[in-house]
Amino acid sequence: MRYSGLKVIKEALTGHKGWRPAWRDPEPKKQYDVIIIGGGGHGLATAYYLAKVHKITNVAVIEKGYIGGGNVGRNTTIIRSNYLLDGNEPFYELSLKLWEGLEQDFNYNAMVSQRGILNLVHTDAQRDAARRRGNAMILNGSDAELLDTNGVRAMYPFLNFDNARFPIKGGLLHRRGGTVRHDAVAWGYARGADMRGVDIIQNCEVTGFKIENGKCLGVETSKGFIGAKKVASCVAGSSSRVMAQAGMRLPLESHVLQAFVSEGLKPLIDGVITFGAGHFYCSQSDKGGLVFGGDLDMYNSYAQRGNLPVVEDVIESGMALIPALGRVRMLRSWGGVMDMSMDGSPFIDKTHIDGLYFNGGWCYGGFKATPASGWCYAHLLATGNPHEVATAYRLDRFRTGRMIDEKGVGPNPNLH
User: Fold this and answer.
1) What is the mean pLDDT of residues 235-254?
2) Distance from chain centroid for Cα 142
3) What is the pLDDT of residue 408?
4) Cβ–Cβ < 8 Å for 360, 404
């Protein structure tokens, strides 16, 4: 069933009796060509591109909970390709290009809104860094504009420009960045994969791997053993726990990242703003709520909830940037479990176990990377070779000294 404006009108006039479930709820088969562990955005995108691009349809996506219950539905919905290093910027630019055609590709309204992202600068050194990053973005086919104070003031006159500690001296504008409805991304990829024959198996927990003679033959689950020629892990903040069942220790730590939404307001912020003097980023949803976030909770955790000190820290940054927030009530908050790599960059690679693959370590970049992650992971699973924009995302890069240290903070995930 394809969605269209005419279909919506027809169903409205006929009592909405013609709608069907967006995807099936099948029982697992005994054997698949590929099993993808994790029914989040990355896992579903991988299954979708395996079926659509590589014509591999004997695929199962195994999800411990329900579709949309993990990080894909627990983020601040931002998409962008404003990275600096050669190992990252081409990858995220591919992802942004896939976002731009995503709704037409999988016939689902994901509410892709390229409303622009503005990274504010508050010092001369930050301006130099923004200029360098903008030039790197342009060299890799992205877009970037360096604004002065008046340019920022013309866009957002309510910002605190005269803050003695954090004066706003300009900003790096990435016009093609923006936001996407996170739940719709999961639903659209799930529906698209299901239409092409992929089995999406919810409420099925992977409890172990069957590995014989160095080869992965399948997974043990709460619904029994399921065999596969290839097994692909894609479970974000649960990566360390899942891969430990295969005897692997990953260069990752799991932290909670909180997000917040305010009560509904009249249109105020038509893009995305990031505070350069503190970790704070903010946009406004279509319902009117301000959606914002900041630093990680600074302790290791697998809990999908946060703590009050981080709430206070994020709100302080928001108040320093937008004093009018002092009159706004916060509606709710939530937490996602982040798999933080030691250099701030992800992994898409084979493991040393034949037939077992790993995708993880996305840090803050997980949601915006969804299309390219699925595209590149599907390419690796189908061909056995890394995609050209993901060749740097190797599991052995710490051993070989080829880190992609995007944030320049080294092995300190709490500082990312």
Assistant:
1) 95
2) 19
3) 60
4) no
Q: At 222, list the tokens.
A: 């709460």
Q: What is the DSSP code string of 234-247?
A: --GGGHHHHHHTTT
Average pLDDT over residues 333-353: 93
Burial tier of 391 (Cβ tally within 10 Å: 0-12, 13-18, 19+): middle
> What is the average per-residue pLDDT within 162-188?
96
Instruction: Write down the pTM of the prediction.
Output: 0.95
The helix/strand/coil state of 219 is: strand
Cα separation, 177 vs 143, whole angstroms: 9
Which amino acid would we find at residue 372?
A
Give the pLDDT confidence of 397-413 residue by residue, as tens digits: 999 999 998 876 655 65
Distances (CA, A) of 151 to 170, 278, 349, 377: 7, 21, 43, 40
Task: Answer whether 363's CB lies under 8 Å from 339's CB.
Answer: yes
- 400's tokens: 């070989």
Tokens 């060299």 locate to: 139
User: Is the Cβ–Cβ distance between 41 and 187 less than 8 Å?
Assistant: no
